[in-house]
Structures are given as C-alpha cells and as structure tokens.
Specification:
- With 841 residues, the chain is α+β, with helices and mostly antiparallel strands.
- It contains 24 helices and 29 strands.
- Helix 1 (3-78) runs antiparallel to helix 8 and helix 13 (440-489) packs antiparallel against helix 14.
- It is flat, with a radius of gyration of 44 Å.
- The chain starts with a helix and ends with a helix.
Length: 841
C-alpha cells in the first residue's frame, strides 16, 4: 500500500468515525428527549388510571351510603317504639359498613344519635339543598364536640325517635374511616389524595397531618409547572374538568392529576413524587441508554475493524467456515432438536455434524463417518434408502424425504424418524445436507386423534340410536294419549268407557314422565349437580313403598314377586330415601320387564356384620328367572344410552339410562353393585350399601289422602291465592280444588299476585300456591316480596311451591326463598291434599 492511498484510507476512516460519533450523540439526545416525554405520559396515565378507580370507589361509597340510609328509613319507622332495636340495628350496620356514626337531624340543625348523644352541626350551603329542596347531600361537616368529618345525608318524612323529631337521616365518616374505605395504597403509600372544592379548599385528605394548609391551590402557587401553567390548573379546577401536569416545589419534582367527582362539584386530586412512580422506568431508561451507547460504540468499532479487514484481505478460510455454519444455523433455528449432517460430495468429506447427534443417536460428534453410523441404527431395509445416483442428480435446492425406524440408545422400541436430504450447489461446493427429525410424538398424536375420532363417532352413533329410541319411546305413550283422548270425546255419555280411557291416559302419562325423569336424572348426574340429602328413614317403610310400586307390575304379568328380610337388626337409619328407592326400583323394574309372564322375582334384604360401630351394612339381592344378559353386554351395561339388542329386548320400552343412573347413585352412596347373569336362565343383582344408624324411633308414615267426601269435609271453606301462568293448568287446578269445596283466586304472574296480596286482610286467604317460572315476576321473587311486604300476613301465611322444577336443589331454592313446602308437576292429587291438610290442619 503506497503512502497516498494509506493517507486517503486514514482520512476516510477518521471522517467515518466523526460522522458516526455525531450521529450517535444526536440519536442519544433525541432518544433521551423522547424517553423523558414518554415517562411523563406513562406516569401520569398510570396515576390517572389508579385514581379513576379511587374516584369510582368513592362514587360507590356515596351510592352505598344513600342506599343504606334509604333502606334504614322504613326499618326505623316500623320500629320507632323500640329504641333498643334501632340501636342494635345501627350497631350491626356500623360494623358492616364501617361508618363513624348515625344521626337523626331536624330543620334547626340539631342532631341526636341512636345511643342518645346530641348536639348541633354546620351544613353551610348544603343545608338549603337538604331541607328546602329535599335533595341528598354530602358535606364536610363538624359538630360541637368532634373534629371535621364527611357527612352523607338524605331527607325523609318527619319522624320521631325517642322523643326527638327529625327530618333527615345521615351517616358520617371520619377521615381515617373514609381513607380505610377507599383503600388508597398504590405506589407504596407515597401518593397523596385530596378532595377539594372548585376553589381548592381541602375537603378530604388521606394524609391530614401533611402541612400544606387548607387550600391546595394556595399551596401550589409557588411551584414551577411543566406541561401546564399555574393559571391553567386554576382554570381547570374552576371549570371542574380533567387535567394533568408536573411541578417542582422545594427542590422535588411531583406529578399532579385532577379529575371531577361523579357526585358533587368537587375534584379528586392526586400528587406523587416523580422519583417514586418513575423509579422503575428511570432504571430502564438508564440501562437502555447505556446499552444503546455501548451498542453504538461496538458498531463503530466493528465498522472500523471491518473496513480495515476488508481493505487488508479477502475472504479467508475462517470466513468460509463461518459461512457454512451460518447456513446450518438458519436451518437449526427452526428445528433445534433435529440432527444435521453436511457432506461435501466432491471431496467425499463430512464438513459439519450438529452437536446433538450424541444426545439423539449416541454417536460421537467427532466420528469420522456419522452418517454410516446412523444408517447402522436404522431398521428399514437398505433397499428403501436413498440411491446415491438419485441424490447426485437432484437439482440445486432439490430435496428427498422418507420415513424410517431407528432404535435410539436406551429406547425400548424403535422411533419413527423423517430423513430428508437437501442438495446445494454453490460455486465449486457440492453439498448434501441430511436432516433426521424424530416424528414419534407426532405419530402418537395422530394415533390419539384417530382414537378420539373413533370414540366420538361411537358416541355419536350411540346418541343417534338413543334419540331414535327416545323418538319411539316418547311417541308410543304420546300416540296412546292422543288416540285415547279422541276416543274419550266420543264416550262422554258412557261413564265406564270414560273412566277406562282416563286411567289409560294417566298410565301413559306416568310412563312418559318416567322417560323424561330418566333423561333429566342422567343429565344432573353427569353435570355433577346431583347430591345426597340424608334424613331419618325406616327401612321397612321404604321396602313397603317399593313393593307398592313393583307388585302391581308383577301381578299384571302374572309373576311371582317375593320379599324376604333376614336378620334385620336396625330398621331406623339415616340416608337419602329417594335415591335408595330409585336404585332398587330401577333394578326391580328391569327384572319385571325382562322376565316373561309367569316368571318369578325374589327380593332379599339382609343386614351384614358391621365394620363401624355407628353404621349398619345391608345387602339387597334381586334375582329373577328372566331372559338373562349376554356376557359381552355386561361390560357395557352401565354406559348411558346403551341397550342390549335382540328380538326380546327390542320389544321392551326404555331409555338405556336406568342402569347408568343406578350405578352412579350406588357409587355416590359409597356402595357397590355386582351382577351374575346367564342368558336364558336369569339375572341376580347384589347391591351393598352402608347407612348411619338412627338411635331415635322413626315416626310412622304419613296418612294417604282420604276419599273425596272426607277431603271435602276437612278442607271445605279454605280460600287459596294462586299463581299459574298456563291457562290450562290453572283450569285443572281450580277443578281439583272445587272437588274439595276449596275456593281460589288465580293470577297469571307473580306481580299481579303480589298486588292482590298487598290489600289482603286476615281471613281473606288461608294459603298461597306459587308457580315458579312465570313472566313479569317469577315465584321466588314473588315469595320474597310477600315475606318482606308491609302486610303483616306476609310473615305467617303458608306458601307452597307448585312447579315443574322437581330436583332436590330446586326444593332447597324454594325453601331458601321463604316457601313452606314444594310440590312438583304434574300435580299429584294425593300429595296436594296431604300438603293442604298439613298446612291447614
């Protein structure tokens, strides 16, 4: 290199350094300015969002206090002659709502509290709004004997408490109480929150001890403002509008955010030292600045080095190696777990092996022929490998892909790999890049997806079959009901036929209701909404009720139904009687259905030796000599919607849900169920259940409904108030009640019923029958309205739910709403009579 060229190069290099340095300084200054502005916007935005939530919380507190006072007015009026009750009521609310005190206030500004304290207080300009304009107010008030506090007051009708005549009710919050209710604790407690009027006078401060005076604008008069002026802040406050800025006072920088409140001509003002809210961002700013500066210096240095190196020499062997590594790095960045081997074909040399080859295949990274070593691990025939001739004939950028089985070290089974080959021509370089990608996990996922798809298809087929069965099973009784109803219209003058048709309609209706109940029971069980409701029960009574359900079915098929009780020592137990009956009736009902006419069904109940002192164990055995169950179907007997398919079972109606429900209920009760069946000979079910022993003697069973004449005598003269939105159901209910000489007034929704009850007098109504799902107002809301009404009868009149909501949690919801009993639809006349007799008797 001659001297002139060297000087030119050095001059060029020096110029490049100066220009780069100037650019770096300009970029850094512009960056710092932009960052400072971004920090200000971010910090004030965060502060504004935090105190917007505080503003919302304050508005919520205001509305809650007004609601509190409004709710307390009626209670105080109704208990005016019981001061001790009001004192207790206020103390409870004070504990719940955290206010400081409760006041009765008259037009003279005099006040008294429930516990007898009295005095006067100053309301200022708010007094005219409260007393004259009858408006709700919030004031910063003070009394003769306590410090300033915030008062929430509403006007009320003139009342008297303990001899003190009042025209308004109020609750107060001290600064500490209001601060605790607002819960302002953001920014490590360093922020200060104020409520001021439009002139800057401080009404509330979460830091009352801070020496800033009584007017916040006066305190800020000497501050040096940024992003706004002092006059702009004054104007914003006078206009009651939003704003934000920063200011410098006593050598410290602060952020100031102010916004109007939602309930009064007040402002919510928040201030926080800038170094508190900016601390994290300042650290980021400094770190970023250093990193940017360091990066620029590094770039400058690299530029100088590169210029020097590019001038001194061409691409060296080292640069060529880096070039090939860059190619491989681009591929490996997309497939980090894949193994790559690069071969230079002309030189027949391995030029690159990815480091993970040892981890994946157990082959050393420094192996002379890693590709051959991997091929030795392959289980696929060599004839399936890539022919070298085909690989050499691939165009530049061409590729080949195949799958192979490779047994990796330590694996119990071979893994599925995808082997790919890429051909790259670059000048004199002729490269083949081999990629080995483990696809075993993808294969497993595909298998899982196929299995899930098969399971879904199977489930859809089962549900399709179930819907087909349901269509048949529901249409069968529905067809009978519609057909017999038509016959009934033509037999109006034939009492015998009329009674026969009515009984057949009732039988078909009960069968269709059973199908619907099975579907709903299974839905409740699968959604986890079925729960046990233990109560005292008598085992013999439960068996008698089950016999009453099953024996008529057995008699109809001329079957022998026998019940045996062996060594029953404990009759009185605690359990869920409904679930117990459902389990046994499902199994016994199947025994009757699948046992031919003239067959026999045995029902054994025996008590087993106890494992716990306070629990009794029972074995319920149900054995028949019916058609039996095939062994392959026994594996699926507890699956929902599944039924055995043969010429006999297809003639028996059913949902395929009975045994699924039975198994779920047995599991829920902590029991076990076993099946032993032989096709053509019969089936035996054993159910094992355990119940807590009830030491108290169980009461006898409830009497059934008497005949209509007896019922008429006992219920005659009752007057009922009813809610029923369905006109046909209302007509049926009215006709049933008329059989017992019971009168009723029926309304189509809860709102109209409540309006009618509001003017009811003692003796007008003895009881209310309440539907649940109604327009305008449902039964739950109507019951709560009646119980909380000003009519004293609302506390005592019996209310009975009469609804299609028939589950246990529906019953509990009715009781929680204030009802006395629950009857499910369709209406069971006997149960309706028993319930009316219980309430009226």
């Amino acid at each position: 290199m001659d001297k002139n060229r060297k000087k030119q190069y050095l001059l060029l290099l020096f110029t490049a350094i100066l220009l780069t340095a100037a650019a770096v300084i300009f970029i850094l200054r512009d960056y710092m300015s932009r960052v400072d502005n971004r920090i200000y916007l971010t910090s004030t935005t965060n502060l504004r969002e935090v105190y917007s939530q505080v503003n919302n919380k304050l508005s919520q507190i205001v509305n809650e206090q007004w609601d509190l006072l409004a709710m307390s007015e009626d209670y105080i009026d109704s208990n005016a002659d019981a001061p001790e009750t009001i004192v207790s009521f206020v103390d409870d609310w004070k504990f719940s709502w955290k206010f400081t005190d409760f006041y009765f206030i008259n037009t003279a500004g005099e006040w008294c509290t429930p516990d007898g304290a009295a005095g006067t207080m100053s309301f200022g300009s708010a007094w005219d709004k409260l007393i004259s304009k009858q408006e709700k107010v919030i004031v910063d008030a003070d009394t003769q004997n306590q410090e300033s506090f915030m008062l929430f007051a509403i006007p009320v009708d003139t009342g008297t408490y303990n001899g003190f005549s009042y025209d308004a009710l109020a609750v107060s919050y001290s600064s500490d109480a209001l601060n605790a209710a607002l819960g302002v604790s953001a920014f490590r407690g360093q922020a200060t929150c104020y409520i001021t009027d439009l002139s800057g006078n401080i009404i509330f401060s979460d830091s009352p001890t801070k020496p800033i005076g009584k007017n916040l604008l006066n305190y800020l008069a000497d501050a040096e403002f940024s992003h706004a002026t002092y006059q702009k802040v004054q104007a914003d406050w006078a206009a009651n509008t939003f704003g934000q800025c920063s200011y410098l006072l006593n050598g410290e920088k602060y952020y100031l955010v102010y916004q109007p409140t939602d309930f009064s001509d007040w402002l919510l003002v928040s201030m926080i030292p800038a170094d508190i809210i900016d601390s994290d961002m300042l650290i980021v700013q400094k770190t970023t600045t250093l990193m940017v500066g360091f990066t620029c210096v590094v770039i400058l240095a690299l530029a100088v080095i590169f210029m020097f190196m590019s001038y001194q020499q061409t691409i060296s062997q080292k640069n060529q190696e880096l070039f090939w590594r860059d190619i491989m790095s681009d591929i490996m960045l997309q497939n980090l777990d894949n193994v790559y081997i690069m071969i230079e074909v002309n030189q027949k040399q391995t030029v690159y092996v990815s480091p993970n080859v040892e981890r994946v295949f157990g082959i050393s990274h420094t192996s002379a022929h890693p590709l051959f070593a991997i091929q030795e691990l392959e289980l696929s025939p060599e004839t399936l490998d890539f022919p070298i001739e085909d690989l050499m004939q691939m165009p530049n950028g061409g590729s080949r892909v195949m799958e192979c089985q490779i047994r990796t070290p330590g694996a119990s089974a071979p893994s599925l790999f995808q082997k790919s080959v890429f051909h790259i021509l670059d000048g004199q370089n002729n490269l083949l890049i081999f990629e080995f990608s483990n696809r075993t996990h993808e294969q497993e996922i595909r298998a899982d997806i196929e299995a899930a798809l098969q399971a879904a298809n199977t489930a859809n087929q089962i549900k399709s079959a179930f819907l087909s069965n349901m269509s048949h099973d529901i249409r069968t009784p529905m067809n009978a009901i519609m057909g017999i109803s038509s016959l009934l219209l033509h037999a109006a003058h034939n009492p015998a036929k009329t009674e026969e048709y009515a009984r057949k309609i009732q039988s078909s209706s009960q069968y269709m209701l059973g199908i619907i109940n099975d579907i709903l029971d299974m839905s409740k069980i699968e959604s986890g909404q079925t729960h046990l409701h233990p109560e005292p029960l008598n085992l013999s009574e439960q068996i008698e009720q089950i016999e009453m359900l099953i024996r008529p079915q057995a008699v109809q098929k001329k079957q022998t139904f026998s019940i045996y009780k062996d060594e029953i020592l404990h009759e009185s137990i605690e359990g869920d009687p409904t679930k117990l009956r459902q389990i046994l009736v499902n199994i016994l009902g199947n025994a009757v259905k699948y046992t031919p006419d003239g067959g026999s069904i045995d029902f054994h109940i025996r008590e087993l030796p106890r494992t716990l002192h306070s629990y009794a164990r029972y074995q319920f055995t149900i054995k028949d000599n019916g058609i039996g169950i095939e062994a392959d179907f026994l594996e699926h007997i507890y699956e929902p919607f599944v039924r055995a398919e043969d010429s006999v079972t297809n003639k028996v109606s059913g949902t395929g849900l009975g045994m699924a429900i039975t198994k779920s209920l047995v599991d829920m009760m902590g029991g076990a169920i076993q099946i032993d069946s032989t096709p053509g000979k019969g089936t035996c079910f054993d159910v094992f259940l355990e119940f807590r022993i009830n030491e108290e003697t169980m009461a006898g069973s409830k009497p059934g409904a008497p005949d209509s004449a007896d019922a008429s005598t006992r219920l005659a003269g009752m007057k009922l108030l009813c809610a029923e939105d369905n006109a046909l159901n209302a007509e049926i209910l009215k006709s049933i009640l008329e059989l017992w000489h019971v009168s009723c007034d029926i309304y189509p929704n809860g709102k109209e019923l409540c309006d009618a009850f509001a003017s009811a007098r003692p003796g007008d109504y003895d009881l209310i029958l309440m539907d649940i799902q109604m327009p305008v107002m449902n039964g739950y809301e109507a019951t709560r309205t009646i119980r909380n009404s000003s009519n004293p009868l609302g506390q005592t009149i019996p209310i009975i739910a009469m609804t299609a909501n028939a589950f246990a949690d529906d019953v509990q919801q009715s009781l929680d709403a204030g009802m006395n009993a629950h009857l499910s639809k369709p209406i069971d006349i006997d149960k309706l009579y028993q319930t009316l007799q219980t309430m009226f008797g």
